[in-house]
Design goal:
Two copies of one chain form a homodimer. Chain A is an alpha/beta fold. The first copy, chain A, is 26% helix and 19% strand. Chain A has five helices and seven strands, in the order E-H-H-E-H-E-E-E-H-E-E-H. Chain A has a seven-stranded mixed β-sheet. The longest helix of chain A has 18 residues, at 65-82. The interface between A and B is large, with 39 and 39 residues.
């Protein structure tokens, strides 16, 4: 079976899940923490080398403050949970704002936990324009793009899985996503099951790899 | 009904269509010309403001020469067909190579035909890294990206429709695609029917627009 090296996760649908479960929108995010740990453990089991979670964006911080506080806390808790596992964590995002959680500053260079192994990246207070603007500071004549953006330490993504039914990238790592296969799951992220994950892997296994050729 | 302003077309599956119809792979491309005219006319009818076709990429030119000659000719013919219609044509791609067809040089600034109206863009000898490399020559402190890339005259895309079943962007305008809704049709591009187009519009109509918010 052909296994992706690097999986991107767009964990969408927390607020819609909350409303469906008679909760206020801000209560959805805490139910998205455990699915993150589950998907990490499945990736570890299947020898995936790298895993990137779409945490929150600069644009997301324009949402009502109770939602903003809730998704920031859920992201912090998600990172902290993984520090108890064998992995290498990196947080990428614009730290030059009070919206970037101070608790995650130590993770902005990659940190090894336990025996290390799988790389786990979190996009925290990320913005695609922020990411790519660093290109304007490069004078390199190298034709490649990735080495000159803020997220340079996140590699090309093979498979993106999005929960919540929407078929769009919503600003998720445009450079690393140019050749990614994109699998969409209709159920909301807090309702994650391992079947979602294995359906995505089975589908990926049937795709070919051309990398634009 | 909510109609997209700008539709991107990824006309994939020409070679697979050719094999299925007992032709050699290079014979598929000429059967992709007429579908392009059909989709143009449907867009015109539905008041779409802008339409972008993924012609061929720098990477595509590494294919066998009979295929390369065939897709280049199909692209030239597609552009020429539209010069008989009411539209405004722009070709974007790396012209600094013999693989860029000389016949299309006049279209690298937007040209009006008939009564003008709908903007039609063709990506010809395009490469996403080529497109974005221009950012390295910008010293602007403006936080936006689009005004500083080669494809700056192509606007944000609302709906991308891809034929041929693959669920990936394959390097198609990564900046203009960050928020695009992505609709995939399993049949091959030469088998295009207007039903494909209207199914995509119906699906788009059911999506919400958040632009990352």
């Amino acid at each position: 079976m052909r296994i992706p090296n690097h999986i991107g996760i767009i964990p969408d649908g927390n607020r819609r899940w909350a409303l469906l479960n008679n909760l206020t929108k801000d209560k959805g995010y805490e139910h998205g923490i455990n699915p993150g740990l589950e998907v990490f453990k499945l990736c570890q089991k299947e020898n995936i080398k790298e895993l990137t979670f779409y945490g929150f964006t600069i644009d997301n911080t324009k949402r009502p403050s109770e939602q903003k506080l809730a998704f920031i806390q859920a992201c912090i808790d998600s990172v902290m949970l993984l520090t108890k596992e064998d992995c290498e964590i990196l947080v990428i995002g614009n730290t030059e704002s009070s919206a970037f959680p101070k608790a995650l500053i130590p993770f902005t260079t990659r940190k090894k936990f336990g025996n290390g192994g799988i790389k786990v990246n979190f996009l925290i207070h990320y913005g695609w324009e922020w990411d790519l603007n660093l290109l304007k500071e490069s004078k390199s004549s190298n034709k490649h793009i990735l080495p000159y953006i803020h997220s340079e330490d996140i590699s090309r993504i093979d498979l993106i899985i999005r929960w919540g039914g929407r078929r769009r990238l919503s600003g998720f790592l445009p450079i690393q996503s140019v050749y990614s296969d994109f699998y969409v799951i209709d159920t909301y992220w807090p309702d994650f099951t391992s079947t979602d994950f294995y359906n995505a892997l089975d589908w990926y296994n049937e795709q070919d790899v051309t990398l634009g050729g």
